[in-house]
């Protein structure tokens, strides 16, 4: 899994890349591999606000639907409209073109509730 130091992970298998007070959010390679091919992504509207761990959307695979949980409290600033036409980008490039939303982070102190890449790896290997 190729990541950088400013990416954090939730136990609910979302990641957030922090750049100043903006966070880019997606699902982890582990989550997309467990779900299988993503066929539909339901994303929120720009301007919607969510608390940490609140459901902000869902992904649909061939045989299941899974909720998406917000890693940090924030306001949606952008959605990845490419996923509406090509949801398999989540499978192909989860950290690049497969990102889902960008948020304005409301409380950076909530980072303490997230996992480093190393801790996330340990969590999924259990």
UniProtKB/TrEMBL annotation:
InterPro entries noted in UniProt: 2-oxoA_DH_lipoyl-BS, Biotin_lipoyl, GCV_H, GCV_H/Fam206, GCV_H_sub, Single_hybrid_motif
Modification type N6-lipoyllysine: residues: 63
Statement: the UniProt record of this protein carries the keyword Lyase: no
Residue ranges constituting the Lipoyl-binding domain according to the UniProt record: 22-104
Cofactor dependence: (R)-lipoate
UniProt KW Protease keyword: no
Superkingdom of the organism of origin: Bacteria
Cofactor: binding details: Binds 1 lipoyl cofactor covalently.
Function: The glycine cleavage system catalyzes the degradation of glycine. The H protein shuttles the methylamine group of glycine from the P protein to the T protein.
Family listed: Belongs to the GcvH family.
NCBIfam families in UniProt: gcvH, PRK01202.1
Protein name, UniProt field: Glycine cleavage system H protein
Origin species: Christiangramia antarctica
Gene this protein is translated from: gcvH
